[in-house]
Recover the amino acids of this structure.
């Protein structure tokens, strides 16, 4: 599969219903972790019209290092516990931030970003990294995103050769 197709529906649940099986198919025959997360970041950027940046930060020692992404140039390294990505990694839980300016210690990689969601990427309880999505609008992410991006993280982790 080399083409992602989702309807132009505004209903997020519908977008994810169409997208998730395609992501499963996209990574099912590929065991290379970097190849999978590169394609998944591109697919998410293509399908989610409200996202300005999407990508992966991978755990390397005690910090997250930028991996494949779609969007503006990103921060290269984020310490565990720092900013939204580092906090999500430290807590191993999804964080929805409606206004990044109100998040204590937010790391401003893109000054135009206004809201963010970060989902830990776990395999058998081991942290591999995080999936990070930003938006140029406030309040862009909700529980539908959280629930479905956690499914995306599971798809990627199951297909990974890491962890």
């Amino acid at each position: 599969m080399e083409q992602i197709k989702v309807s132009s529906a505004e209903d997020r649940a519908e977008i994810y219903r169409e997208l998730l099986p395609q992501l499963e198919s996209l990574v099912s025959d590929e065991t290379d972790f970097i190849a999978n997360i590169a394609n998944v970041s591109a697919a998410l950027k293509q399908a989610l019209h409200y996202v300005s940046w999407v990508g992966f930060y991978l755990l390397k020692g005690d910090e997250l290092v930028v991996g494949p992404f779609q969007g503006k140039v990103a921060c290269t390294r984020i310490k565990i516990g720092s900013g939204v990505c580092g906090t999500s990694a430290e807590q191993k839980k999804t964080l929805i931030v409606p206004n990044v300016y109100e998040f204590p210690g937010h790391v401003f990689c893109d000054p135009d970003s206004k809201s963010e969601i970060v989902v830990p990427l776990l395999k058998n309880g081991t942290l591999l990294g995080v999936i990070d999505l930003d938006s140029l609008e406030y309040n862009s992410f909700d529980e539908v995103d959280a629930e479905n991006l956690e499914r995306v993280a599971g798809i990627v982790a199951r297909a990974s050769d890491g962890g």
